[in-house]
Amino acid sequence: MSVRTIATTPYQDQRPGTSGLRKKVPVFQQPNYAENFIQSVFDVLEGFAGKTLIVGGDGRFYNREVIQKLIKMAIANGFGRIMVGQGGILSTPAASNMIRQYKAFGGVVLSASHNPGGEHGDFGIKFNVANGGPAPEKITEAIYARSKVISEYRIFDTADIDIDTIGTKKIGDAEVVIFDPVADYAALMEKLFDFDAIRAMIKGGFTLRFDAMHAVTGPYAKEILEHRLGAPEGSVVNFVPLPDFGGHHPDPNLVYARDLYDLMMSDKAPDFGAASDGDGDRNLIIGRGIFVTPSDSLAILAANAHLVPAYKDGIKGIARSMPTSAAADRVAEKLGIGMYETPTGWKFFGNLLDADKVTICGEESSGTSSNHVREKDGLWAVLLWLNILAVRKESVKAIVEGHWAKFGRNYYTRHDYEEVDADIAQKLVTDLRARLASLPGSTVNGLRITKADDFAYHDPIDHSVSEHQGVRIYFEGGGRVVLRLSGTGTSGATIRIYIERFEADQSRHNLDTQETLAALIEAAEQIAEVKKRSRRSGPSVIT
Ligand code: G16
């Protein structure tokens, strides 16, 4: 058994996107494709000799194969301890917790998150740094630069490692530890929340359904919701992680979690419905008869966080990604705490959390979390909701409507145009940027534009600047349209349009979202011509 150095030729397309490198499985199956990227990660890192690396994934197709490569390469590159979730399973938030708890150098999560899986689906590799969060842009850009010139990789020559049996083995100079992926995470959740209060609520007849979408949260949700909190068996559905997610798209939104939505709108609805995605960092919250938008969920959780043990002394500040609605801003204002607006991508919250400027962060893309880890955390959001419900003893609907009455309502929707020809999408954005300066003062579809810009983020902690993070157009009366290209798709381009309007008048809080935003949606089309240029009759997904 020895370290082998293998010659390789670089690929030119290994630039990490919003959250790691994501490509179709056949792309990853090309000779040395995964090895090149993993070696590029190790090549740009310094000082990890003898240290710990956390490894796991969401169980999707090709997970087990890449985990073997990764373990052997980590040994060959000099890590001292490689800790692997049993069966290669580890949710993104649990990985973040493991990195922090075991003071690891970092971690590698194999996942393409909410993207579909299976032989022809997507695969991904994401590197997280010592604070438990996704690698910042300066590291991901260095990895990309390295991947374009890489000429060899190192791998330890050994038979495949048994990743299904819990225990520790010495391989070469390293220790390989196979651990239970649920235990430490579940213990952390018990520390943050009042499990007794939630248990009592469930015992008193409160009903819930959690849809794990055949993805990684299945084992976590079974253990926490059913075994520890006493939800009856069957409350957690689709709980066995499958390589192809049962043929479904593990994205917890109103399109891909339609069954849950339909149940929650029916006579048979339980009190609370929730779902998570491929790697367990996203959440969908639906009360009986009411869908809670992720932007509203962030605002409501922030406003009520003081009711649960972990945040009983109050929260320091809130951060949200720029396209997320401004609902949380008014909560921050009322609480007299800081509010930060960052580009899309959880990695931008890391500095603010480390500097203790914020406690709770959230994104319109169904991500919410706090300073307990450095990733978004699907089950954490579910448990925070359950804890708040147990304390307030009101329905989800009553809490949401009460929140709107107090703070006003931000009507909000996102329209996605998926798999648009990449050149058409790029030109559309370039043309739009060129027109930005001329938009303020003009009227489109009867709406007057007050401001238009291309969002650039100046990180208040490390002073780095991230430009071109989305076009923002503001209208008189509080309307806003944002347009940006997704950084997580794997075929063509996905154009996202985010539309929002504030409504203070409580008598107008129960209108249809699409109808109330129709004038802004039409204005967005007249300005950007997404439908016309992509030759579509409408968005592929509306959330
Ligand atoms: C990732 C990032 C999120 C981001 C989302 C959507 O989520 O971690 O921060 O909001 O992608 O990004 P985009 O709009 O560029 O597609 P996940 O759950 O896929 O890791």
TrEMBL record:
Stored Pfam families: PGM1_C_vert_fung, PGM_PMM_I, PGM_PMM_II, PGM_PMM_III
Reaction catalyzed: alpha-D-glucose 1-phosphate = alpha-D-glucose 6-phosphate
Keywords (A to Z) from UniProt: Isomerase, Magnesium, Metal-binding, Phosphoprotein
Gene3D superfamilies noted in UniProt: Alpha-D-Glucose-1,6-Bisphosphate, subunit A, domain 3, Alpha-D-phosphohexomutase, C-terminal domain
Superkingdom of the organism of origin: Bacteria
EC main group: isomerase
InterPro entries: A-D-PHexomutase_a/b/a-I, A-D-PHexomutase_a/b/a-I/II/III, A-D-PHexomutase_a/b/a-II, A-D-PHexomutase_a/b/a-III, A-D-PHexomutase_C_sf, A-D-PHexomutase_CS, Alpha-D-phosphohexomutase_SF, PGM
Biased composition (Polar residues): 1-17
Domain Alpha-D-phosphohexomutase alpha/beta/alpha: from-to ranges: 14-153, 184-286, 295-407
GO molecular function, one term: phosphoglucomutase activity
Entries under CDD domains matching the protein: PGM1
Cofactor: Mg(2+)
Transmembrane segments: none
EC number(s) given by UniProt: 5.4.2.2
Disordered: annotated span: 1-22
Family listed: Belongs to the phosphohexose mutase family.
Protein name from the UniProt record: phosphoglucomutase (alpha-D-glucose-1,6-bisphosphate-dependent)
Gene source species: Daeguia caeni
